[in-house]
Amino acid sequence: MGRLSDFYFAALWQLCHVRQYVTNDCFRSLVVSPVHSRLDYGNFVFVGLPAYLQRRLQAVLNAAARLVFQLRRYDHVTNALAILHWLRLPERVNFKLALMAYRVLNGMVPSYLNQLVPVSSLPRRRRLRSSFTSQLLVPQYRLSTVGRRSFPATASIF
């Protein structure tokens, strides 16, 4: 995880030198695309990460927001994150996980994800009017942190 955050800090540092040659919108997309593509790609791996690793990845998001708005290192970044419509890392991971669980429940995912996550139907007599007609089953996993952080195990919480 340390190498990943170091890589992004180096990439953001290199982007500082490009700022004067492109427009603000172009620069924003140059900063956002590599950071968010990698964070969104590995969202399910980030579930249940220790706090010190989450802080490292959050520092990358904060540095990207500071770079877009030309803030100093010790300026507050909360408003910049709000203007960019970025969630903090724990909320971002939970949102992406809940969104994927919703898509699995409603059949809006590719078939390989439907096979990965078992969905069971509730009996008609036990169903409430406001509840879904199906629920995600909690799969059996070995006692490891990786098994608990997998999508089928964590999606069943939502």
User: Can you tell me the number of structural domains?
Assistant: 2
Tally of strands: 2
What's the N-to-C terminus distance?
26 Å
In the sheet with the most strands, the strands line up as 1-2
Q: SSE order, as H and E?
A: HHHHHHEEHH
Task: Walk me through what this model shows.
There is one protein chain. By secondary structure, this protein is mostly helical. The protein folds into 2 domains: 85 residues, no CATH class; 62 residues, no CATH class. The protein contains 8 helices and 2 strands, in the order ααααααββαα. Helix 1 runs parallel beside helix 3.
Question: What key phrases describe this protein's structure?
Answer:
mainly alpha; single chain; 8 helices; 158 residues; two-stranded antiparallel sheet
Concise synopsis of the structure shown:
By secondary structure, the chain is mainly α. The chain has helices at residues 2-16, 24-41, 51-69, 78-84, 89-105, 111-116, 145-148, 151-155, and strands spanning 119-121, 134-136.
